[in-house]
Amino acid sequence: MANLYDGKMAAIYDAMYQTFVNYDEEYTFYNNLIQENNGAATLEIGSGTGNLAKRFEANKQNYLGLDYSADMIAIAKQRNKNSSFIQGDMRDFKLDKPVDSILITGRSTSYLISNDDINRTFESVYKNLTQDGVFIFDFIDANRFIPFTKNNPVIVHEAEFENINYIRESHWDTNNSLENFMLEWTAQYYTIINGEKEIIENDFSTVRVFTLNEIELFLYLNNFEILKTIDRKTYAYDTYVIVAKKIS
Ligand SMILES: C[S@@+](CC[C@H](N)C(=O)[O-])C[C@H]1O[C@@H](n2cnc3c(N)ncnc32)[C@H](O)[C@@H]1O
């Protein structure tokens, strides 16, 4: 498990992602998919610092967030005083009551690095959905991402938040030695103070990207039927978004 979302990193993540990601657009996109499928109660897995939660709360929707990181949840709770968040692992969780839609957004599926991680997550999602419930999630498309990292060994993101300038230099190692199209990701975070670059954090994690066929097969094996597959570009990655329903 990555250390990316603990301690100081949670606050840095929050500052930077608000400049990379248009959360209003993100909310509209996912909420439309929920509404098309008559979802009333929603669980967001990997709710992070609560930027989508803020939009669900503003629209007075029945929302619950789940995240592994206590530090991310602490920021989410501060941002959303009227929403509920629980600390848990997507690979093994049990809600008090099943919900109509379960979301995994923001490419949080990249942290499911073994087949067992994926199967356990899909099984937990299945058990916590109502009969007609839908599962909506995104993942990074391996077929496009791996060539991209080969052609772009260092990827630089710049962001300005609350008058502080940040730079993130990240590197994905596609050395072909890891199972399951996993990649070693390293990143250096800097602030720019008086024109000088100062390192604030080093980060490292192992992530996995998927082919569409793999995901289709995992869903089939876990009794889901795909309703929709959407090809979607995000700030740095080509992803697919899947809408699937339970087969009972
Ligand atoms: C890339 S962030 C995305 C956060 C948020 N969805 C967004 O778009 O800003 C990934 C999130 O997934 C959470 N996460 C990673 N592994 C998890 C697991 N096994 N169970 C629950 N949450 C997990 C991390 O703590 C982090 O908050």
TrEMBL record:
Which controlled-vocabulary keywords does the entry list? Answer: Methyltransferase, Transferase
Q: Which GO terms describe its biological process?
A: methylation
Alphabetically, the GO molecular function entries are: methyltransferase activity
Q: Which Pfam families match?
A: Methyltransf_25
Residue stretches making up the Methyltransferase domain: 43-133
InterPro entries (UniProt xref):
Methyltransf_25 (IPR041698), SAM-dependent_MTases_sf (IPR029063)
Protein's name according to its UniProt entry? Methyltransferase domain-containing protein
